[in-house]
Design a protein that fits this description.
The chain is an alpha/beta fold. The protein has 12 helices and 10 strands. Bound molecules: pyridoxal-5'-phosphate.
């Protein structure tokens, strides 16, 4: 059942509007034909616009809403050397006129490319650490030094996947269902595929769909790294945290959620043959750019699912394109 009060609170929630919304829902007929299905739609969150777009813009609009930003002098976050989340955080900091310190792991690149180049272009200061495990303690150490200097730091968790950040995707669920309902294509079920890693995107979608009372939208998260059970548990926990912020307790289990973890291959960011083929298909047939770490593996998961399951006439397939273009050019 639709929770109108919680949906109103969601729509009225303060945010720093930087995304170009709504993002288009495009019909990918040539790719659909290639995959042997009647219709495929792509929800182009690669085109949220700000700082080359992607899913992080929606999350950070909530994380960095004006009330929370009041008095903040420095944003601190962490990720890989090619982190999309770091890119968008650095760009928010630039736009909002505050300092940004990014803790990235790996060696300092001699000639930064892709997201690493953009981190620097947006004026972020980079602290490099050797291991993934060093990132969070380093962020807190950096925050303490900013405080000691009299500044006011805000530490953003990796991926901005918090209960608050996932409200960005709860709101996206509202936007997407309006677009789907306007298609008038006679479908009664939607199979929605997208990438999942720190889980805020899928958590927000599940929350939004549960608040909307939309069990007809099935959510498939394709893992970029961790095993399914772990990601499903984190997704539901984040969705519960987001619901609590809205004072709601929707039936999250009413939204069908499947986490697929057989596209990870050699690990996070390691290319796979299926992902490279998906990238080629999206490019050649639709002029759509995928990134190697997230969206190419998600597309490979969707393509594999389509080839091993029957998609009925009543079902429509939608690919959520979460962005990440700069990673292809790294
Ligand atoms: C391009 C892209 N797609 C998908 C994801 C996964 O989103 P989430 O971390 O919300 O699971 C990320 C996260 O870093 C990303 O950068």
């Amino acid at each position: 059942m639709k929770d109108i009060d919680a949906l109103r609170r969601l729509e009225e929630w303060p945010r720093t509007h930087l995304a170009n919304l709504p993002t288009p829902l495009i019909k990918a007929d040539r790719l659909a034909g290639h995959l042997g299905i009647d219709a495929l739609h792509i929800k182009m969150d690669a085109e949220t616009g700000f700082a080359l777009g992607g899913n992080k813009v929606r999350k950070l609009e909530f994380e960095l809403e004006p009330n929370r930003m009041a008095g903040v002098t420095c944003l601190i976050t962490a990720g890989g050397a090619q982190s999309n989340h770091c890119r968008v955080t650095a760009a928010f900091a630039a736009r909002l006129g505050v300092r940004c310190i990014l803790v990235t792991q790996g060696v300092e690149p001699a000639k930064p490319t892709g997201n690493a180049l953009l981190h620097r272009l947006f004026g972020a200061e980079i602290v490099t650490v050797a291991e993934r495990a060093d990132r969070t303690p380093t962020m807190h150490r950096v925050a303490a030094s900013i405080e000691a200097e009299g500044g006011r730091p805000m530490v953003l968790p990796i991926g901005a996947s918090t209960g608050l950040g996932c409200l960005g995707y709860a709101s996206a669920a509202l936007e997407l269902t309006q677009q789907l309902d306007a298609l008038g294509d006679g479908s009664s079920e939607t199979l929605l595929f997208g990438s999942t890693s720190s889980c805020g995107t899928m958590a927000g979608l599940v929350l939004g769909l549960a608040l909307l009372g939309r069990p007809d939208v099935h959510v498939f998260g394709v893992s970029a790294d961790a095993p399914s059970e772990e990601l499903t548990a984190i997704t539901l926990e984040l969705a519960r945290e987001g619901a609590a912020l809205l004072g709601a307790s929707p039936d999250l289990a009413s939204v069908p959620l499947v986490t697929i973890d057989d596209q990870v291959g050699g690990g996070y960011g390691v290319p796979t043959v299926a992902a490279s083929e998906a990238t080629a298909d999206f490019g050649r047939l639709e002029g759509v750019v995928l990134d190697p770490t997230y969206t190419a593996k998600a597309a490979a998961g969707m393509i594999d699912w389509i080839s091993t399951h029957e998609v009925t006439r009543k079902q429509r397939v939608v690919f959520l394109h979460t962005g990440g273009h700069p990673g292809l050019l790294a």
